[in-house]
Amino acid sequence: MAPAYNAMVGFVEEEVKKMMYELKLNKKFNEDRFMKTLKEYYNGYLFSEYGTERVYNSNMVLYFYNQILKLGKYPKNLMDENIKTDYKKLEDIAFNFKDDKTIEKILSGEKLTTKIVEKFNLEKMYNEKANFISLLYYFGMLTIEETIFDQYILKVPNYAVNTVYWDYFNHKLKKRINIDINNTDLTSAI
Q1: How many whole angstroms separate alpha carbon 137 and alpha carbon 132?
Q2: What is the mean pLDDT of the chain?
Q3: Do 106 and 46 have their domain in common?
Q4: C-beta separation of 100 from 173 below 8 A
Q5: Would you say 130 and 121 are in contact if contact means Cβ atoms under 8 Å apart?
Q6: How many CB atoms lie within 10 A of CB 67?
C-alpha cells in the first residue's frame, strides 16, 4: 500500500499509449477510441491512498495488444479467460465470511467504506467485515476510490473485474438463496 509501489504491478496510461505507438497501432486505430476501450475494461486500480495515477491491469493490456497483433482488429472477447482465479477457492473464501449483504451491495454498484486490514488475525478472521472487504481489495476485486482519514471508499475497478468475478458471485449468490430472475430483456439491451 506504499505510494512507491502503487504502479508496480500495472501500467500507467503513458506506458499503455507508448506501447500503442511502438507497435504502430496508432496508424490503424483511432487513439481516443482505443484508449477509451482499454480504460473502461482494464484501468482503475489504485493500490495506495497516496497514489497519483490509476493503473491498468498489465495482464489484460498485454492480452489485448497480443490479440490485436494476431487478428489485426479488436478481439471479439476483450476478456482473457486465463485471468480467472480458481473460482472454487474464491467462493470458499467469500462465503466463509457469510456476508451476503456486502456482496449484494457490491453487486448493486454501491461503494464500501472500511479500514483496510494490513495484518490478519486468523482467530478472528471470519468475524470481522473489514477482513472480508480487505481480502477483496487485496485480490484486486475492489480498489480505492478515495480516502477520508483512515477510512477507504472502495469500488469495483473496471468492467473486466465486474464481468469476470462479480458476475460469478452474482450467479452463486442467486443460486444460494434460490433466486431465479428472468433477465432476458436486460441481456438483449446490453
Answers
A1: 9
A2: 84
A3: no
A4: yes
A5: no
A6: 17
User: Domain boundary at 81, 100, 125, which?
Assistant: 81
Does residue 176 share a domain with residue 95? Answer: yes
Coil, helix or strand at residue 178? coil
Q: Give the list of residues 6+ apart from residue 145 with CB closer than 8 angstroms, or none.
A: 46, 111, 153, 154, 155
Domain assignment present for 189: no
User: From CA 47, how far away is CA 44, in angstroms rounded?
Assistant: 10
Domain enclosing residue 171, as ranges: 84-180
Last residue of a domain, one of 81, 98, 115: 81
Q: Which residue has the higher pLDDT, 105 or 62?
A: 62
Instruction: Give the pLDDT of residue 61.
Output: 95
110 and 156 housed in the same domain: yes
Amino acid, res. 67? Q
What pLDDT is recorded for position 178?
Answer: 63
H helix intervals, the chain: 13-22, 31-42, 58-71, 87-96, 100-107, 129-138, 159-161, 167-176, 184-189
No. of helices (H) and no. of strands (E), the chain: 9, 5
